[in-house]
Amino acid sequence: MPRVLILCTHNSARSQMAEALVRAAAARWGLTLEVHSAGTEATRVKPEAAVVLAELGLDVSGHTSKTLRDVPDAQRFDYVVTVCDSAAAGCPVYPGQTERRHYPFMDPSGGSLARWRAVRDQLGLQFEAFVQALHAGQAAPPSYVDSPAVPVA
């Protein structure tokens, strides 16, 4: 079963939303994935993330903010995806079989719910393309910009 790690700085917003969205997309595509998210430092899951995900029927009320120390077998992932530049810069080195991707998204923290929804929707498009590629036996999109499912502004 492929293992996916989504990494951000605080594991409080973007990576939490991405984790839930990847799980939902995998279920839609009938793809079995083990999905985790973590931060370079742990804080708390922001309530706005739970609100905008609940609008899609996704429940993250049981999620907690984690670091790599909290993730099982943290050095063995098939894919490590960073969703912010800070996490990309601080991402640990992974063995050769791990494929890294960097999909940077705006931090919705401190913004309106409309901003949170916009980031959620962008994450949803990107990670739908990610899961769809894995389901088709293709390489995951190498970057946010290269993903055919996400319009380039």
From TrEMBL:
SMART domains: LMWPc. Residues 2-133 form the Phosphotyrosine protein phosphatase I domain. GO terms for molecular function: arsenate reductase (thioredoxin) activity. It is an enzyme of class 1 (oxidoreductase). Gene3D superfamilies: 3.40.50.2300. Transmembrane segments: none annotated. Keywords: Arsenical resistance, Oxidoreductase. It comes from the Bacteria. Its EC number is 1.20.4.4. This is Arsenate reductase ArsC. It comes from Deinococcus multiflagellatus.
